[in-house]
Amino acid sequence: MDVAVFSAKPHDRQFLEQANGGRHRLTFIEARLSDETARFTDGAGAVCAFVNDDLSAPVIATLAATGTKLIALRSAGFNHVDLAAAEAAGLTVARVPAYSPHAVAEHAVALILTLNRNTHRAYNRVREGNFALEGLLGFDLAGKTVGIVGTGLIGQVFARIMLGFGCKVIASDPYPNAQIAAEGVRYVPLDELFGASDIISLQCPLTPETHHLIDDAAIAKMKRGVMIINTSRGAVVDASAVIRGLKSGVIGALGLDVYEEEAALFFEDLSARAIVDDVFARLLTFPNVLITGHQGFFTREALTAIAETTIGNISAFESTGAPLHPVSAKPL
Ligand SMILES: NC(=O)c1ccc[n+]([C@@H]2O[C@H](COP(=O)([O-])OP(=O)(O)OC[C@H]3O[C@@H](n4cnc5c(N)ncnc54)[C@H](O)[C@@H]3O)[C@@H](O)[C@H]2O)c1
């Protein structure tokens, strides 16, 4: 099958070619999928897209008109796809429902440990010969309460790691998981989670219900000094509200791997340009904010699994007309 791979970085080429083993004809296109670039597919039966590719109705219409039959997402999340438009245009959408939950969960832990013990600041200080400890004070994780919003694949792995640190772990999820509850996670209503947590980690999908879940009203319910970690999707957090929370001191630390307007920033080297997003630029000024550019998934194991499942989806679609992991409905 001819496959046009959008947003293709060198690592995408490496892992996809390895998983493909010559089965499909892969064309790697560095550009993001957009209204402008959709016509580069040149009749490819499948389009392979990532999290910041544009899969809105007009792009889907162009893809359908140029002969695309399958959209194979290299991601678990599919909030960026207009599924109704895809269905109406007769396009099948596939995703990678699970690759390495460890990759994202461990990255959330990396953000927590860095923010808590200020290793991001200590690194620079020590290189400049500054061995002062003022401003680097952290807290023991043992005994602290960690609140997890969303105990799916990633949330469960994260919960087990935090239980291992000796934390009390509470969670909120419309579908509580009996196994993780048996291991020590206590399910509570969301408001109770906001009020009781020292650290809040977001591991839910972006849906109409979770859009701006962390807003002024939610922050007002939190403990003073709370740490908020978001490795899910940017729009789960209202960035302007967390800036107010940081300024007032209610939010003591903020770790973001995702940002609502990340499509204009992430995955590119913009170091020689001015950042025109003033909200993002303001977030970067806080010493207690740590932002990574959507790298939670970025481990060898996760990239191998993403590539293998993606090629599996394309092969199954080619031979049976149905991918292994179709996206059939909107998330919860
Ligand atoms: N940073 C990254 O690189 C990266 C990588 C992969 C996934 N993600 C994000 O992480 C999210 C979670 O991934 P996953 O594999 O654990 O998904 P999953 O589908 O296994 O789990 C999601 C969980 O969230 C719960 N949920 C849904 N709505 C909720 C709500 N309103 N409140 C609380 N919980 C709710 C679901 O019931 C489910 O248990 C993905 O949707 C994606 O947005 C980020």
UniProtKB/TrEMBL annotation:
Belongs to the D-isomer specific 2-hydroxyacid dehydrogenase family. Residues 3-327 form the D-isomer specific 2-hydroxyacid dehydrogenase catalytic domain. This is Hydroxyacid dehydrogenase. Keywords: NAD, Oxidoreductase. Residues 109-296 form the D-isomer specific 2-hydroxyacid dehydrogenase NAD-binding domain. It comes from the Bacteria. InterPro entries: D-isomer_2_OHA_DH_cat_dom, D-isomer_DH_CS, D-isomer_DH_NAD-bd, D-LDH-like, NAD(P)-bd_dom_sf. GO terms for molecular function: D-lactate dehydrogenase (NAD+) activity; NAD binding. It comes from Cereibacter changlensis JA139.
